[in-house]
């Protein structure tokens, strides 16, 4: 009996829960803060990381464009977000938000926020459908 109790306990895995709004409307040419918060039963460690990716409207593939780890942000160098991404979060406050400046119609699509906080593992990343609209 003891060994079976031990096994069932060892299999339990904790998870990070990521929270984002489902949809956002952003005016063309303005800055957009993409909110992403998370919960984790583990202490936020130096191994915690955040990655953001983008799936353009109608596209089948995602583009990774931002990574944050160890207090440093690593914005992707490629178009479409070159020089437009700013880290707006604070992992100690369980905030993984970013800001994208000068939003354009080509930025329409789904933004995916993925948080890792080992040993916690993410079950489901947060997804925000962004619609850029006329001013």
TrEMBL record:
Residue spans crossing the bilayer: none
Classification via Pfam families: V-set
Recorded superkingdom: Eukaryota
Domain Ig-like: 14-129
Assigned keywords, A-Z: Disulfide bond, Glycoprotein, Immunoglobulin domain, Membrane, Signal, Transmembrane, Transmembrane helix
CDD domains reported for this sequence: IgV_P0-like (cd05715)
Membrane topology, record value: Single-pass type I membrane protein
Compartments reported by the entry: Membrane
GO CC, any one term: cell surface
Gene3D superfamilies, per database record: Immunoglobulins
SUPFAM superfamilies: Immunoglobulin
Chief place where the protein resides: membrane
Record bears the keyword Transit peptide: no
Family: Belongs to the myelin P0 protein family.
Protein name, per record: MPZL1 protein
Naturally occurring in which organism (per UniProt): Neodrepanis coruscans (wattled asity)
Gene giving rise to this polypeptide: Mpzl1
């Amino acid at each position: 009996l003891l060994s079976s109790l031990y096994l069932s306990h060892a299999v339990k895995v904790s998870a990070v829960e990521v929270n984002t709004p489902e949809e956002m409307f952003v005016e063309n040419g303005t800055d957009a803060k993409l909110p992403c918060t998370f919960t984790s039963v583990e202490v936020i460690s130096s191994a915690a990381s955040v990655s953001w990716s983008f799936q353009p409207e109608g596209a089948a593939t995602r583009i990774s464009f931002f990574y944050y780890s160890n207090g440093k942000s690593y914005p992707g160098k490629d178009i479409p977000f070159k020089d437009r991404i700013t880290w707006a979060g604070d992992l100690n406050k369980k905030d993984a938000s970013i800001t994208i400046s000068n939003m354009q119609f080509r930025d329409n699509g789904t933004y995916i926020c993925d948080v890792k906080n080992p040993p916690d593992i993410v079950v489901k990343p947060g997804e925000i459908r962004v619609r850029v609209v006329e001013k």
